[in-house]
Design a protein that fits this description.
This protein is of the alpha/beta class. The protein folds into two domains: about 160 residues, P-loop containing nucleotide triphosphate hydrolases (Rossmann fold, 3-Layer(aba) Sandwich); about 90 residues. About 35% of the residues lie in helices and about 25% in strands. A hairpin with a 2-residue loop joins strand 1 and strand 2. Bound molecules: adenosine-5'-triphosphate. Adenosine-5'-triphosphate binds next to strand 2 and helix 2. It is found in: Cell membrane.
Length: about 325
């Protein structure tokens, strides 16, 4: 099989693939064996701590640098060796934009339009950027959030099949962020494949079909939001009844509780993982209520909640500490 045939075969339903990707900067290994697959039409969110290796991973996938080891493919093509073949099909929004800040918004869009065969019109681009009234304004006079929005629109001006968005909504106010999410969702609806990095967990919750949390160069957690938080477990919590000593708290499903102070009051929390996600909280509550009834105590402020993405994120960092 020639390289091209093999590449095409892989490209049918996988848009982005990295296998055992490693990236060194001198002695420092920034990415340590990352494997991920993004299917066509999917939005995959790469989350992680500062310095986790997200941007580095993106840069290798974008073809900015060759991988130190491992393989990467975008639309079945090696993004570094065949960057020119790939570039009309890929849109890239970097963390730092490279605008010529003396140009007006319209001139900047015009410049980008000239680079693409099937570019969106100036009017559509201004509309998508929410900058219809800023066409004659110089780019340097835009706010940080407006520049991000313009940058996003420039990355999709040529209607790419795959888009890399590195922290696309940083610096945007909550309203602008919501509008931008709408734009990103529309791209996905139209079949665009998107790999996005973000520090806003809510952004991943809103947009991602699948997500991964990176830390220290590795993917530590990966899956759909439901899978990721489901694996982490449900939380059952209540105020510790004053008359109950800590060692009298029951085991629930074999788990001991954690006790932490919340506003000066000890709060008991059980993390219920494994089992049937749909019913495990219920199964945990049955023996807990029996225990409380036996002792004649009420479980004050009883709450059951599924783990949040934030819980998952913090535990990834804590496990490494
Ligand atoms: N050109 C470079 N030369 C040397 N080290 C680098 C270079 N670029 C990145 N690094 C280091 O590699 C690690 C990963 O950086 P990277 O920018 O990929 O992380 P990140 O997950 O995108 O972080 P952030 O969320 O802060 O943007 C960091 O420790 C960073 O200091």
């Amino acid at each position: 099989m020639t390289t091209d045939v093999r590449e095409t075969a892989v490209a049918l339903d996988v848009a982005i693939a990295a296998t055992e990707l490693r990236q060194r900067y001198g002695e420092f290994e920034a990415v340590r064996g990352v494997s991920l697959t993004v299917r066509r039409g999917e939005l995959f969110a790469l989350l992680g701590t500062n310095g986790a290796g997200k941007t580095t991973t993106m840069e290798v996938l974008e073809g900015y640098r060759p991988a130190t080891s491992g393989t990467v493919q975008v639309l079945g093509i090696d993004p570094y060796r065949r960057r020119r073949a790939l570039s009309p099909r890929v849109g890239i929004m970097l963390q730092e934009n490279g605008f010529l800040s003396d140009l007006t918004v319209a001139e900047t869009i015009g410049l980008w339009r000239d680079l693409h065969a099937n570019a969106r019109s100036l009017d559509e681009s201004l509309e998508l950027a929410g900058l219809a009234d800023k066409a004659r304004v110089r780019v340097r006079q835009l706010s940080g959030g407006q520049k991000r929005r313009l940058d996003l629109v420039l990355s999709i001006i040529g209607r790419p099949e795959v888009v890399f968005l590195d922290e696309p909504t940083t610096g945007m106010d909550p309203e602008a962020r919501r509008t931008t999410w709408g734009l990103i969702r529309d791209l996905v609806t139209d079949g665009t494949t998107i790999l996005l990095t973000t520090h806003y967990l809510e952004e991943a919750e809103h947009l991602a079909s699948r997500l991964a949390v990176m830390h220290e160069g590795e993917i530590r957690v990966e899956g759909t939001l439901e899978e990721v938080v489901g694996r982490h477990g449900d939380r059952v919590s209540f105020r510790l009844p004053p008359e109950i000593p800590l060692d009298a708290l029951p085991l629930i499903g074999g788990h001991t509780p954690g006790v932490a102070l919340a506003g000066g009051t000890p709060v008991v929390t059980y993390t219920i993982a494994g089992g049937d996600q749909a019913t495990r909280a219920h199964e945990a509550l049955v023996p807990l209520f029996a225990w409380a009834a036996e002792r004649g105590v009420a479980l004050e402020r009883l709450a059951v909640r599924t783990a949040s993405l934030e819980d998952v994120f913090h535990s990834v960092v804590k496990e490494s500490a």
